[in-house]
Design a protein that fits this description.
By secondary structure, the chain is of the alpha/beta class. It has one domain: NAD(P)-binding Rossmann-like Domain (Rossmann fold). It is built from nine helices and seven strands, in the order βαβαβαβαβαβααβαα. The protein is globular and about 60 Å long. The termini are far apart. The protein binds NADP nicotinamide-adenine-dinucleotide phosphate. The site of NADP nicotinamide-adenine-dinucleotide phosphate has 29 residues, from α1 and α4.
Length: about 290
């Protein structure tokens, strides 16, 4: 029998748009006490409108995952008000497109600061609130990019691979204290990460770059793929609800069929064949 989730205290990062916004609104409508955090409170209206539409309530707090002061302030407030957290959803993240030589060191570090160290900053503060009760779930939003790489996404891939390794190791550590660490590895869903929130390398659009023709080719291909993508973003909040309800959820959770297939192929094929398929899929139409 699935467990009830009504009244569960759920902290989510990156709730100004996309998966975070939809998950916050969905769980609020299911009766969870949702603490929806975002780095810029001026963006909260989109979330509040969605919550009003679906029913329920959320508490919105400012939290920039790369700024330890805002992390501490938000979690100190939560500890004082509720004393504990049932579920942490580490959702905040950002993309970064560009070939390695076109990327600056600081662009790569900034991506890592958000997607990897940002998760650690929040997790470090939340663990004590779960450890004392010997229960809790930490759900990390990784990506298909956390197990399958592609050219021009190496920095993002590295941040999500690092998140995967961290999550796997932390799972062993926190199991001893009754805390579950889980991963969600979505494929492409049409969110702002590909539009307003897209980040590209400093030299991505520089015609002097030796990578310029191939960068532009891949950007066009990616844009077409995203435009063509009609997956329902609600699959993510529904999966998160399922994981919160489950007594023994799986560690890896892949919501979409494309990514499930990639995961299976990656596991069963020798890398030479797998990478040949990826190369053919990406570059069959490329004429330098
Ligand atoms: N959409 C996909 O296809 C896809 C696939 C696999 C994995 N993911 C992962 O899913 C997560 C959510 O992405 P999304 O697709 O929903 O994209 P999105 O709409 O761009 O949402 C990203 C969220 O993260 C927030 N954020 C970025 N940097 C932050 C920081 N330093 N502190 C706090 N919040 C920060 C953004 O806030 P601002 O509004 O302030 O920028 C925004 O709320 C990310 O971890 C992403 O890597 C997405």
């Amino acid at each position: 029998m699935p467990k009830s989730i009504e009244g569960k205290i759920v902290l989510i990062t990156g709730c100004s748009s996309g998966f975070g916004l939809h998950t916050a609104a969905h769980l609020a409508s299911r009766g969870c006490k949702v603490i929806a955090t975002m780095r810029n409170l001026e963006k909260q209206n989109a979330l509040l409108n969605e919550v009003q539409r679906r029913g329920g309530t959320v508490e919105v707090l400012q939290l920039d995952v790369t700024d330890k002061t805002t992390v501490k302030e938000a979690i100190t407030h939560i500890a004082a008000k509720y004393g504990y957290v049932d579920v942490l959803v580490n959702n905040a993240g950002c993309g970064l497109g560009g070939f390695f030589e076109d990327l600056t060191d600081s662009e790569i570090r900034q991506n890592m600061e958000t997607n990897f160290f940002g998760v650690q900053n929040v997790t470090r503060e939340i663990i004590p609130l779960m450890r004392q009760r010997k229960k809790g779930k930490i759900i990390n939003i990784s990506s298909v990019s956390g197990f399958s790489t592609s050219p021009a996404f190496g920095a993002y891939n590295a941040s999500k691979w690092a998140l995967e390794a961290f999550s796997e190791s932390l799972r062993y550590e926190l199991k001893l204290f009754g805390i579950d660490v889980l991963l969600i590895e979505p494929g492409v869903y049409r969110t702002k990460i590909f539009y307003e929130n897209a980040h590209y390398a400093h030299n991505f659009d520089n015609p002097e770059s030796p990578y310029y023709p191939v960068s532009q080719y891949l950007k066009k291909k990616m844009t077409e793929h995203v435009e063509d993508c009609h997956k329902d973003i609600e699959e993510i909040p529904l999966l998160i609800e399922k994981l919160i309800r489950a007594a023994n959820p799986s560690f890896r959770n892949i919501p979409d069929i494309e990514s499930k297939m990639l995961y299976i192929l990656r596991r069963i094929l020798p890398f030479s064949i797998y990478s040949w398929i990826i190369h053919k899929t990406l570059f069959s139409g490329y004429r330098p």
